Amino acid sequence: MLSLADGREQQLDTLYSAPSSVVRSELARELGVHVLRNGDVQVDRRTMGTSLSGLYAIGDVVNGLSQISVAAGHAAVAATAIHHRLRKAALHTRQPP
Ligand SMILES: Cc1cc2nc3c(=O)[nH]c(=O)nc-3n(C[C@H](O)[C@H](O)[C@H](O)COP(=O)(O)OP(=O)(O)OC[C@H]3O[C@@H](n4cnc5c(N)ncnc54)[C@H](O)[C@@H]3O)c2cc1C
Predict the structure, then answer these.
(1) Residue 1 lies in a domain
(2) How many domains does the chain have?
(3) Closest among 74, 61, 68, 62 to 24, alpha carbons compared
(4) Given the CA of residue 68, which atom of ligand 1 is nearest to it?
(5) Partners of residue 41 on adjacent β-strands
(6) Range of the domain at 41
(7) CATH assignment at residue 83
(8) What residue owns the CA closest to ligand 1's atom 35?
(9) What is the pLDDT along the chain (97 residues), one digit of tens a residue?
(10) Structure-derived torsion over alpha carbons of residues 53, 58, 61, 62, reported in degrees to the nearest 10
(11) Residue 14 counted as domain residue
């Protein structure tokens, strides 16, 4: 039995709490990354790269569905983009034998 502040009572089988949450993007903002008005970091969805070259953002700090599986998907996209970027940079700096 759930007793509400106004005196009403409700019979429930299950009760889920829904705590509010805020996006912590202050650091990104301080670094000069483009952050949306609601605090979400803006990214290129193809790479998860932010407006600051070489900086990537994933998970809840990026707007979308806030779930673990989504954050893991973001991470896979970012890791692949970083791999390609580093490989390209290595090819450019490779010294001839
Ligand atoms: C109560 C609750 C229940 C949930 N249940 C589910 C569920 O059942 N299934 C599901 O898929 N998802 C669930 N989620 C959502 C899930 O937890 C998030 O989507 C997921 O954790 C996002 O991962 P993240 O790495 O983006 O952020 P987080 O897991 O929040 O990690 C961010 C980390 O950065 C740290 N941090 C923040 N600012 C700084 C700073 N300035 N310097 C250093 N560290 C910093 C934080 O302390 C935190 O450890 C739930 C969330 C909540 C709040």
Answers:
(1) no
(2) 1
(3) 61
(4) 11
(5) 35, 62
(6) 22-93
(7) 3.50.50.60
(8) 24
(9) 889 999 999 999 998 888 888 899 999 999 999 999 999 999 999 999 999 999 999 999 998 899 999 999 999 999 999 999 999 998 888 777 7
(10) 80
(11) no
